[in-house]
Design a protein that fits this description.
With 169 residues, the protein is an alpha+beta fold. 34% of the residues lie in helices and 37% in strands.
């Protein structure tokens, strides 16, 4: 395992522990007066960008959402380590299914916690509908998961880690 991946995993577990058990780690919501309001606004922009590029299947835009050492853990799938591997995964799906089209994508995050340049968000009941080809039936999936985000120098946020499941409906 790459050193950066180990770091992300350790940081993730440490952040989870600190974020969930620290006395000042109150639930963060998108409200005025929150000391993390600018972070939450930037995270919401990441969410909107994620929806936009996913619906368009704009692979470069999708890749731009990730850190260089991003990690994808999805139940029943091989772990994807690093931006180059994520790019290869996008390209593989595009090559195997040239008519692939996302019809809807509605991520539903229940909570976002911000702590020292890291954000942890979880959600369930996220929904997506897509077609593998123009002639194929519509596939509906429901997912749940956890994402770890890292604040960038310009105040924007990128995805460092996703852990999730997706089940056909």
């Amino acid at each position: 395992m790459k050193r950066t991946s180990v770091f992300v995993t350790i940081a993730f577990l440490t952040g989870l522990t600190v974020g969930f058990f620290a006395p000042n780690a109150a639930r963060r919501t998108f409200s005025q007066g929150d000391p993390h309001a600018a972070d939450l606004t930037a995270i919401e922009k990441l969410h909107q960008d994620d929806i936009r590029v996913t619906l368009m299947q704009e692979h470069k835009g999708m890749l731009d959402l990730w850190t260089e050492d991003g990690v994808i853990f999805q139940l029943g799938q091989p772990t994807v380590l690093g931006k180059k591997a994520i790019q290869a995964q996008y390209e593989k799906v595009g090559a195997e299914y040239p008519g692939f089209k996302v019809l809807s994508y509605v991520p539903k995050f229940k909570e976002v916690r911000v702590f020292d340049g890291w954000a942890f968000e979880w959600g369930d009941n996220s929904e997506a509908k897509f077609k593998m080809s123009p002639d194929s039936p519509t596939v509906s999936v429901r997912s749940q998961g956890l994402r770890v985000l890292i604040r960038q120098g310009d105040g924007s946020w990128k995805i460092a880690l996703t852990v999730g499941t997706a089940e056909p409906q």
